[in-house]
Amino acid sequence: MAAYKPVVVQACPKLGERITQDTLYWRGYKTPVQIKEFGAVNKIDFSPVPPYNYAVTASSRIHIYGRYSQEPIKTFSRFRDAAYCATYRDDGRLLVAGSEDRSISLFDVGGKAPLRQFEGHTKPVHLVGFLSDKYRIFSGGDDYSSKLWDIPSATEIISYSEHTDYVRCGCASKVNADVFITGSYDHTVKLFDARTKSSVMTIEHGHPVESVLLFPSGGLLVSAGGRYVKVWDVLKGGQLLVSLKNHHKTVTCLCLNSSGQRLLSGSLDRHVKIYSTTSYKVVHSFNYATSILSLALSPEDETIVVGMTNGVLNVKHRKPEEKNESSQKKRQPAYRTYVKGKSYMPKQEDFCVSKPVKRVLRKYDKLLRSFQSSKALDAVLEPPIMLHTPEVTVAVMQELHRRGTLRSALAGRDEKQVNLLLTFVARRVIEPRFTPVLVIVADMITDIYQPVVGQSAIVDKQFLKLQQAIGKEIDYQEELLEVLGMMDTLFATFTKKRDTCLEENKSNGVTEIIETNRNY
């Protein structure tokens, strides 16, 4: 009896992933550390001074973490309700935060109780931050107002009520100590100057604004809202430079790297996109488990911290650079050690002993060897195989068709199994490498289960999907044939013109030769 030959799976070439310098750089982070917070993480802010601790605002607490600590090294919990937007001052010594109870609290990083309390908002305060002079605080709340506060006297300096919806985000200029920006759910971004009584610029984003970011130079402004990230030129009166739509859901946070050459955006679609600030194209992306609310990058790009809606804090640290210490490396055996005896040719009088090669058969091969056609088909209809290696499923179907047992393997299935079969066929029948086999499979399934059409809504729906997929493919093929006919006509015209030109050249050449001979 001949030995069983395993099913030959057709191998198709795969396109290699494009490896760029950005890919190598952003992959250079360790496996993330997961830290569970008490609620959704609405703000992460790194201290601008070493050792670059970061403040995490979640629920009614603010936790201060060290760069490599998995437990908070300090906690501010004296809030009656939820805390928002804990932000460091430029010297890293003070921390300010808003809250659901309409107050603003100023903390000394080394203390516990608030140094100052600022009262004046009538609704929750979601936005707080320091101006670059370090002695004033700006804020924004759900009462549609933006306010400026004096730290030494704990008094309100000025209040702006130009927004018509919640003020949820903002930032201060690093260049001008009087300029700050706010973003609101009224679809606008406003630029304020503390020396004036009204906003000096209004930018229409087009969607509720979730985050704003000002470049260190102060000339470019980035706003995020809806699925869009938009870049504006402040020096040209708020002219739109580029609009990016790379996320599938609302963009919630923005961040720049230390050099300002890469822009990061986090979204509810669980992705962090990294853009080049020269071309504004996506150069890399990270995928996370749940929707992202906040994002921060350490001043030296050593740590990426992402806060999510389920209260999980995801922390990634950069891998240390490998040092070339050749002296400490163990000396490896020479190359000749590995190839010794590889080129030896046995002589005629030698007795050769061959080592038996053990062949491991896959599950579907074992079932095919024992002629269990239906079970072999079931083995390759499992979701991991169908999704990731559909060529295996198609190869087994082709082998069953070659043996003449495909119809019996497809018959006798319940509603769930028929639904699974039709889903696979409808999805893959349009792929050219699978079409010849799956057209036969679809024909057999239609013949076998035609009498039960109308008895199951699920199966009927899958038959309709299969019909639509095949109909679309036929339409595409007809359009391609029309295009092919047009191209053939064009090529034929070019060929005729070329042949005519060659004939004219030849005839001219003969005439010239005859005239030359006559002259002689």
Structure description:
Helix 3 (363-369) runs antiparallel to helix 4 (373-380) and helix 4 packs antiparallel against helix 6 (390-403). The protein folds into 2 domains: 26-317, 7 Propeller (Methylamine Dehydrogenase, Chain H); 363-473. It has 10 helices and 28 strands. With 520 residues, it is an alpha+beta fold. The chain is elongated. The strands form 7 sheets. Strands 1-28-27-26 form a 4-stranded antiparallel sheet, with no helix packed on it. Strands 2-3-4-5 form a 4-stranded antiparallel sheet, with no helix packed on it. It has a 4-stranded antiparallel sheet with strand order 6-7-8-9, with no helix packed on it. It has helices at residues 21-26, 335-339, 363-369, 373-380, 383-388, 390-403, 406-410, 415-428, 435-449, 457-519; strands at 33-36, 41-46, 54-58, 61-65, 74-76, 83-88, 94-99, 103-108, 114-119, 125-130, 136-141, 146-150, 155-160, 167-172, 179-184, 188-193, 199-204, 209-214, 220-225, 228-233, 239-244, 251-256, 262-267, 271-276, 282-287, 292-297, 303-308, 312-317. Strand 12 (146-150) and strand 13 form a beta hairpin. Pfam families: UTP15_C (PF09384), WD40 (PF00400).
